[in-house]
Each structure stands twice: as C-alpha cells, then as structure tokens.
Specification:
The chain is an all-alpha fold and about 200 residues long. The chain has one domain. It contains 8 helices and no strands. The longest helix has about 35 residues. This is Yip1 domain-containing protein. It is found in: Membrane. It is a multi-pass membrane protein.
C-alpha cells in the first residue's frame, strides 16, 4: 500500500493525501517496514558510488574513498537520517495542537516519511557521484518534497489552508535547523578523525 501511495503522490498529490489520511499505520509499521529501508538508499548508494566508481566534480579527475573510511560515514549517515526523520515528526506532533490539528505521533511520522520520500529516492543518484548531477537531482527532489509538504499539510491535518501554510513553514524551519545541526555534527566528527580518506 505504501508503494501505491508513493507513486500516487507523484501523479496526483492532492487526491493521494486524502487517501493516505484515511489509512491506519502503527509506529512500528512505519519505521520497520518503510522508513528503515528508504533511509538506506542514500548512504548505500553513496558508499557504492564513492568506493567503486569514485567522486568527480565535472566527470573527470575521479577520486575514490577507501572502504575503511566510507563505511563508518555511511553508517552514521544512515542513523542520522532515521533520527532526523523521527525528530521532525516529533516536532510536527508537538506543534499540531497549536495549529488546530488532531493527529497522533504515528500519523506525523507517516506524513514526514511520505513527504521526505522524493529526497530518499533521489539518493540513488549517489551511485553516480558526479557533483553537478547529484546537486541537480537532489535539488529537484527537495523542491518536490516542499511541494508535497505545503499541499499535504492542510489536507492531511484537516486544517484551513492559511493555517496549513504557517504550519508547513514551521516544519520547514525545523527541517532546516536539523540540517544545520547535522552539518555541525559532521564537522565535529570529521575533526575527530572520521574524515574521508581518499585512495591515491
């Protein structure tokens, strides 16, 4: 059912959000059946791409990461995606009463998971780690996730569009703060000896 909704959001998002709103999902079902697999796509793809094919800025001068340095980075990236997904879901749950919504944490988690799905799927581009191509694809996925966020909040949370816009903007702010926190943690870890090592 998740896959059908996922593709439905690509073709007719407004109708699909209405269908998703009527579904019943448990916390374990969302996390164990969907989120943990979606979150694997970017780190696994980047691990394969950077260790087997090499990283390139413009399609030339390929640099490969060593498996020993890429593996812990991929594992940390995977768990940071899961933690970030849970954190944004919790913040959505915490803010919902302020905006007149009546949803559970499970519903906030499924909403966040569906909204972030284009970004997770864009992780497949990591198999071809060419900087300009990756940036182009990921930016497209981010734009579509933002579209799903702003279209989906009023429908999924059953609130007026005016309040939905403010709610969606608040969730976006939380997401951006999480991203900044992730970048800061990355800088700290790299300074602590987890920086990537390149093959000669």
């Amino acid at each position: 059912m998740f896959t059908a909704h996922m593709f439905g959001l690509l073709y007719h998002p407004k109708n699909e959000w209405s269908y998703i709103r009527r579904e019943k999902y448990s916390l374990l079902q969302v996390y164990l059946r969907y989120a943990i697999f979606l979150a694997m796509i970017p780190p696994v793809s980047l691990f394969i791409g950077t260790t087997q094919y090499g990283w390139s800025i413009a399609g030339s001068d390929v640099m490969k990461l060593t498996t020993e340095s890429a593996l812990p980075i991929a594992i940390l990236f995977y768990f940071s995606l899961l933690v970030g997904l849970a954190f944004v879901s919790y913040c959505t749950y915490w803010m919902e009463r302020t905006f007149g919504a009546d949803a559970s944490f499970e519903r906030c988690l499924i909403f966040t998971t569906f909204t972030a799905t284009p970004m997770f799927l864009s992780g497949f581009i990591g198999l071809l780690p060419i900087l300009w191509l990756d940036v182009f694809v990921v930016l497209g996925a981010v734009c579509y996730s933002l579209y799903l966020l702003y279209v989906g909040i009023p429908i999924f949370m059953n609130i007026p569009e005016e309040r939905g816009f403010i709610f969606a903007s608040s969730i976006l702010t939380v997401g951006l703060c999480s991203l900044v926190g992730l970048m800061a943690a990355t800088a700290i870890l790299w300074g602590s000896g987890l920086a990537p090592q390149f093959l000669n």
